[in-house]
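To: structure subgroup
Subject: Chain for Friday's discussion

All,

I'm putting the inputs and outputs inline so they're searchable in the archive.
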Amino acid sequence: MAEDDKIRIDGLSKAYGEFQALEGLQLEIERGEVFGLLGPNGAGKTTLLRLLMGLLVPSSGCARILGMDCFADRVELKRQIGYLPDTPFFYDYLTGWELLRFIAEVHRLEPAESVQRGERLLGELQLADAADDFVTSYSLGMKKKMALALALMHEPTVLILDEPTTGLDPQSSRHIREFIRSYADAGRTVLLSTHWLEMAESVCDRVGIIARGRLVASGAPAEVCARAGASGVGPASLEEAFLQLTAARAEQRADQVP
């Protein structure tokens, strides 16, 4: 198959026994855009990101990134994707620099190139002063930024972020939002999951709202707001649209329960 620069999700479903975590998800994400995945806890957002990273096997349907199947081609695909999990994992008693060098070796970067990239990322993510400290001593916000630096070390074409601003103070959160926007403006694709609707409105080109395993709306934030409104008059904010659409899905799901 010829290489494709989109993220393509076609009828993707994931079930755990009788529980349907995702159901028939259909979505395309264009290169160079920031797409925000929104939804209440347990909606299926993290399940979707894990499916895209090849960490889970879909029950049905498929997902492709850059023309590669997210599960069958998961090893090769990881060379093209940067992934930030909601809860980063680090090896005990490694410094920030040691972690960056380790990831650089995994991606077979030349030593000089790894140093150059590491210094740039540490500076951009405001971690330079803590680079020689053990990562176990970092605050939650610093760990989140270090995990982002690791995800960016090989300069991926696609960046997948699960709650990238959790644990960050307002100044750091704003800095990360600006960084994400500039990364996409350079022609790369960013898919992020977030509970912060203000972040979605300010950073994302398009958003998708997932509720009870289904995509209930997608489009530019203003389009989603308009679609959720009654009689052609949209809600005043993405928050109001989010509450309306997720509540409607919950009622629909309740009606289907025997």
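Points worth raising on Friday:
Residues 89-155 form one domain.
The mean pLDDT is 89.

D.
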